[in-house]
UniProtKB/TrEMBL annotation:
Pfam families: FecR (PF04773)
Cross-referenced Gene3D superfamilies: 2.60.120.1440
Keyword flag rRNA-binding: no
Domain of life: Bacteria
UniProt-listed InterPro entries: FecR (IPR006860), Ferrdict_sens_TM (IPR012373)
Protein name per Swiss-Prot or TrEMBL: Sigma factor regulatory protein, FecR/PupR family
Domain FecR protein: from-to ranges: 147-240
Record key words, sorted: Membrane, Transmembrane, Transmembrane helix
Listed transmembrane segments: 71-90
GO molecular function: sigma factor antagonist activity
Amino acid sequence: MHIPKEVQDAIQKVNSGISKPEDRAIITDWYNSFDDSSAVVDAATNEEEIKSRILQAINKRRSAKPLLRPLYFRIAAAASALLVMGYLAFRLYPDQPADLSIQAGVHLNYTDGEQQQINSTMEAFLDSTAFDNLSAYQKNRSEQLLTLSTAKGQLYKFVLNDGTKIWLNAGSKLTIMPAFNEQTRTVKLIGEAYFEVAKNEKVPFEVISDNQTIQVLGTKFNVKAYHDEASITHLYEGKIALNTPVQSEIVLPGQAVINELGRLEAKQENQSISKEWTSSIFSFFQSEYDRHTYQSLPVL
């Protein structure tokens, strides 16, 4: 099933809250071009009921008897899920003004107990040149831990004082260790983040997550390390050393490494899919519809 690019773009704009009437018309025309038996959604329908219907539809596809062309139907499921999300969004809230806020502010917590919020927008997140400079929040606090937290529906990208760029996915937490870029460059991650690490051979960059440590000099990689599932590390450029209490692995470009309770398994994988979330392109077929697939989707 092929989704025209203009339809993909329109769905993305609807999900981002920046759609125009012509974008909604594109989705409606494409939706009406199918002869299906989908139920008509009443605008007064309870939001929780709508979410439940969407998840039931996806789970029904997941449990269906496998056919001869599983990839085709997985992509078709992705298209259907994206279409339903976008279509319901503008059917339920057709008169709402465009809201560029991803969600409420990203939380910053310091060791001394102080908290701050950073407001981010989808427009800024999608701007390839726009990065928040985290140094502005670290003045006179280089000896403190700084923790960034995103809730469901929140996305944030920023640059560290060493020049490293980080995209933080929804439902994630990144802690920057004291004296960063002096003796060490160490961060701790819960959740998912994409890193473009600035090169510094004298001070290696470390990412510590549940049951593993990644050491790099300068490279591009994505780490998905939520507490309740296996960790997955994708490498795009350079080389990294991935260490657990029971195993070590040198990871090469194009490889994905799965960490199950410290046991590492490396394999070749479609690298573009794993970081689509950094462009706000939601991939429903990179995993078996696990709940984190929906982390960065806006709440209907």
